[in-house]
Amino acid sequence: MRLLLVEDDNHVAAALSAVLARHGFEVVHARSGEEALHALVPDAAEAFAVVLLDLGLPDQDGFEVCGRIRKLTSTPVIMVTARSDVRSRIHGLNLGADDYVVKPYDTGELLARIHAVSRRTVHGPGEHASEEAAGEDLLRIGAVTIELATRRVSVSGGTVPLTRKEFDLLALLAQRPGVVFRREQIISEVWRTSWEGTGRTLEVHIASLRSKLRMPALIETVRGVGYRLVAPAPAPPAP
């Protein structure tokens, strides 16, 4: 598996590259945002299975680099940074990052996340989730419309841009409105892993979905269990 490591600290990059190499990765090291973008030109972008992106780059902010990467390629991006606040996590995911790992991290954690995002198919895990829809291509939950075939979500007719994981998560919950999905089940279906540390990423994605859809009550937290999508009550008939 070929991986692009975007990290300006040569000592950190060398140590991480050595670890990744022992686990079968071929690592290409970019020391700046421009160097990373040059490596991801359209003809070469698909050669990488994952991009590990540090946010503290010398020439430009990593968030900006992520946004530019998303315009070039759909290659999965994992942000690796010391910024641990939820606002930064949500911002990164909104820009199109597939995951967000906070320094210092456990190497096993990083490897698990790399494998989780790289296991996605061309159409993403949403295709797996939609198998249970028995051929249904359209889901409507109140004002929310989810088009499984085109991976398009709209609220009251207006398109809402979602990242791959956000769409997969929403589509899974929308398959069975009112049914509680356990956290472990969601992580297994959407991230294709049983690794427990993914739970924090799940929380960030839920918060991001609530914010983007502007419907915080649509996804309900069932304390100690998981989440469920709450279908709005139908409007009473006109008198």
Automatic annotation (TrEMBL):
<dbReference type="InterPro" id="IPR001867">
    <property type="entry name" value="OmpR/PhoB-type_DNA-bd"/>
</dbReference>
<keyword id="KW-0238">DNA-binding</keyword>
<dbReference type="Pfam" id="PF00486">
    <property type="entry name" value="Trans_reg_C"/>
</dbReference>
<keyword id="KW-0597">Phosphoprotein</keyword>
<feature type="domain" description="Response regulatory">
    <location>
        <begin position="2"/>
        <end position="118"/>
    </location>
</feature>
<feature type="modified residue" description="4-aspartylphosphate">
    <location>
        <position position="54"/>
    </location>
</feature>
<feature type="domain" description="OmpR/PhoB-type">
    <location>
        <begin position="136"/>
        <end position="231"/>
    </location>
</feature>
<dbReference type="InterPro" id="IPR011006">
    <property type="entry name" value="CheY-like_superfamily"/>
</dbReference>
<keyword id="KW-0805">Transcription regulation</keyword>
<dbReference type="InterPro" id="IPR039420">
    <property type="entry name" value="WalR-like"/>
</dbReference>
<dbReference type="InterPro" id="IPR001789">
    <property type="entry name" value="Sig_transdc_resp-reg_receiver"/>
</dbReference>
<feature type="DNA-binding region" description="OmpR/PhoB-type">
    <location>
        <begin position="136"/>
        <end position="231"/>
    </location>
</feature>
<dbReference type="Pfam" id="PF00072">
    <property type="entry name" value="Response_reg"/>
</dbReference>
<keyword id="KW-0804">Transcription</keyword>
<dbReference type="InterPro" id="IPR016032">
    <property type="entry name" value="Sig_transdc_resp-reg_C-effctor"/>
</dbReference>
<protein>
    <recommendedName>
        <fullName>Sensory transduction protein RegX3</fullName>
    </recommendedName>
</protein>
<dbReference type="InterPro" id="IPR036388">
    <property type="entry name" value="WH-like_DNA-bd_sf"/>
</dbReference>
